[in-house]
Design goal:
- The chain is 20% helix and 34% strand.
- The protein is an alpha+beta fold.
- It has a single domain, classed as Alpha-Beta Complex (tt1808, chain A), CATH 3.90.1570.10.
- A six-stranded mixed beta sheet has the order 4-7-8-9-10-11. The chain has a three-stranded antiparallel beta sheet with strand order 3-13-12.
Length: 157
């Protein structure tokens, strides 16, 4: 995977299939930074979620799949500090990149939900379209919007 990074490619493995995309552009990174600054515990929540968020970290799932979510929100800091994270994120936010939208929509969303991620959010920074996926359904929203996650965290997407 290090060689792919040097070529300007982000490589993931989903269900044994390699999936790649080019490194993000400035609009993408600006959206990631803006959203990460807004992640916090939602008011009036009883949960003990630490609302710990990371950007572009390698996550290895139980089936051996490897993903690098744009933003992953965790209940607490994962134990894996020097290797891929093996803890399942509570929520994942993906920023759609031009030409790679289907990767996140058709591969990423179902995969994350099957793996136990409770909230999967997609933001198209060019149009402002937001889709919030949970096992019980999908909400279509417009950015900026405040989303409360099942774990008790919230973020402005």
């Amino acid at each position: 995977m290090a060689a792919a990074y040097e070529l300007g490619i982000r490589l993931e493995m989903v269900d044994g299939v390699p999936v790649w995309e080019a490194h993000p552009v400035l609009r993408h990174q600006m959206a990631v930074d803006r959203i990460r600054r807004s992640v916090r515990r939602a008011p009036h929540t009883d949960g003990g979620c630490g609302c710990v968020d990371y950007s572009d970290v390698e996550v290895t799932f139980a089936d051996g799949s490897i993903k690098r979510p744009d933003i992953a929100i965790y209940f607490r800091q994962p134990d894996d500090l020097d290797s891929a994270i093996t803890m399942i994120p509570e929520a994942v936010i993906e920023i759609l990149s031009s030409g790679y939208e289907k990767k996140d929509m058709l591969i990423g969303v179902p995969f994350y939900l099957e793996q136990g991620v409770k909230d999967v959010v997609l933001l198209d920074p060019r149009t402002g379209d937001v889709t919030h996926h949970r096992r019980d359904g999908v909400r279509k929203l417009r950015s900026p919007t405040l989303i409360r996650f099942e774990c008790g965290c919230e973020a402005e997407v």
